[in-house]
Amino acid sequence: MTKLEYTFKTDTLFKMLFVKHPDLLKQLVSELLKIPLKSIEQFEIKNPEMPPEIMGDKFCRLDINMTVNGQLIDLELQVRDEGDYPERILYYWAREYSSSLPASGNYVNLPRTVIISIINFNQLDCKEYHSEFRPLEITRHELLTDKMCLHFFELKKLPANIDPENMLLLWLSLFKADTLEELEKIKAMEVPVMEKAINAYHSVTVSPEFRNLEKMREDAYYNRIAALQNAEKKGKIEIIELLKSGKSPEEIIKEYES
């Protein structure tokens, strides 16, 4: 098996590919949200920029924020489980929703705000690969409002065999693929939009623009690791010196907390 150097889960590739090919993004969103493609009359990417100066920022998010038929749609890709994903997604939703309050200040005019998460780990205690959350009364299951919606697509739970007629699973399989053979298997199904997406993938991965941005991203990541390791080593030396000076562990803890 030939492991891919970059996959659809690579955040720089994810953002660049779908910004450069908004027709593919539109079809992906159509499948993720079960919106008939022909019914999408308004479709706009609100944050297409990938400025090089922010690529090294550890807080840089390469999500795709869209307006789709008057709804705010935020497409997130998360590879690693850092233990705080549900809380983080609620924060993202709250920020998107609250920042879209019209100048008139009329809360009724706030748009429906949807966060779509494609994640490469098991977050929820269920066998289904797709989960949708909305604010419901816990006994009557009465919907409070349709303006909050959180979708989770868990790649680890996808079935082993994919029906070529199931477009949603085909799209998610692209994100799950880690080897060239997996991509070629999908391409061999001769589904036109999948062929187009895979061709776009190959085009983006060899482009100098992508390579430069990805190098910035990787360099920043390894620099942070080195800095953390250095800080940890320095911290251990400082603690040893404080113990040698006669300070108690309790005094050292207080010093670090102050």
Topology:
Elements: H1 11-20, H2 22-32, E1 43-45, E2 64-68, E3 71-78, H3 85-98, E4 113-119, E5 130-133, E6 148-154, H4 167-176, H5 180-187, H6 192-205, H7 208-244, H8 249-257
Helix pairs in contact: 1-2
Structure description:
The chain is α/β, with parallel strands linked by helices and 258 residues long. Helices cover 44% and strands 13% of the residues. The chain contains eight helices and six strands. It has helices at 11-20, 22-32, 85-98, 167-176, 180-187, 192-205, 208-244, 249-257; strands at 43-45, 64-68, 71-78, 113-119, 130-133, 148-154. A six-stranded mixed sheet has the order 1-2-3-4-6-5, with helices on both faces. A hairpin with a 2-residue loop joins β2 (64-68) and β3 (71-78). α1 packs across α2 (22-32). The protein starts with 10 loop residues before the first helix and ends with a helix. The relative contact order is 0.13. The model has no long low-confidence stretch (mean pLDDT 88).
